[in-house]
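User: I'm putting together a small comparison set for a docking exercise, and I want a reference complex before I start. The sequence is below, and the ligand is uridine-diphosphate-N-acetylglucosamine. Could you produce the 3D structure with the ligand included, as structure tokens?
Assistant: Of course. I'll restate your input first, then give the structure tokens for the complex.
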Amino acid sequence: MKILSVVGARPNFVKIAPLMAEMRKHSDIRALLVHTGQHYDLEMSDFFFQDLGIPQPNINLEVGSASAARQIAQIIERLEAVLESERPDLVVVVGDVNSTLAGALAAVKLGIPVAHVEAGLRSFDRTMPEEINRVLTDAISDFLFVSEPSGVENLLKEARPASRIFLVGNIMIDTLKSCLARARQLRPAEDQEIWGGKHSDRPARFALVTLHRPSTVDNPTLLQALWRALEEIGSAIPVVFPVHPRTRKRLQDLGLDASPMAPPFAPANGIRPIAPLSYLRFLHLESMATFVITDSGGIQEETTVLGVPCLTVRENTERPVTLTEGTNTLVGLDPERLKQEAQQILCGKAKRGRTPALWDGQAAQRIVGILEQKLPEVSRGA
Ligand code: UD1
């Protein structure tokens, strides 16, 4: 079986790593990797390949940054040529980014079966670019690999056939479990550019922040109010903020300086902006944080497994199990609520949770087992 996987953006790399590793264990599978080039910076891409031991992509489509339409169009066009020459038996796409949808579309148009890893998640908010990517990718995929029970329900409601839906668990958690011990050992040089000085200078408690979604950071009034809220939280607890390139630009437009911190590492407002972190360095901080503030999808899941309280700055989540079973709380696009919930945690009233079923580090193994068994049937059009 020749299986070609398509990745493009940071969260994709975390999801493909265990699958590439698992496929390489099977002599009947030839695994190819295509990087679309959606993310191209060292910090957004290369460091993830290094940390996660992902093999170098066989092909890089080098599409770079552009509007969603251009990005998707260019990926389809360039990937079509690759698929025509490679003729894989299956294309695997992961997550919900533009590269996911484009990869799936290029494949189905050539009659190549598609597997979608992390299928079925729904925020029911069609203003989110990722929601459109999720709905459309699931509509054209032959294998729907799902991470939590809500995904199965959503796909059945959308009339996707039950025979194509597989609840396999959460592949990001495979990566987390295999990397956590290594991530926890990082120190003290890794700490230095955040806290300065020695390892012992790291405070016992700190909050970790990531914000990058257009709906959060492209609204100047909201972004400014969130920054002020972070400053207030920063007066009670140090706030470490690895800043996504989009967010840095938007903060700059508001006259707010989020350039990586320089010595003496003691910001007056308590916020410590740093460059985006590699996977291991981020996981290191995430696992040690008192709480996390985010608008990311995957971080809601990681904090649930780590048992770290997570305040999600969004009105909805496509990962409801992190609310019902995990440590996640939705605070809306509401800086006041964010401050109140942070205060609750600082008073010792943090939400506790448990790890959802099948988030056990074995998702990739389940996926490859199903593909080995079922792909021959799908390829024959059964
Ligand atoms: C994409 C995903 C989002 C995911 C996020 C993780 C879509 C629709 N969105 O959003 O779901 O959570 O990745 O980061 O696919 N840029 C750089 N260097 C890079 C990449 C991007 O500077 O290596 C800047 C560019 O100015 C670019 C902007 O970031 O225009 C946005 O990048 P883009 O790939 O369009 O989407 P993200 O916001 O990163």
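The chain has a mean pLDDT of 95. The first strand starts at residue 2 and ends at 7.
User: Thanks, that's exactly what I needed.
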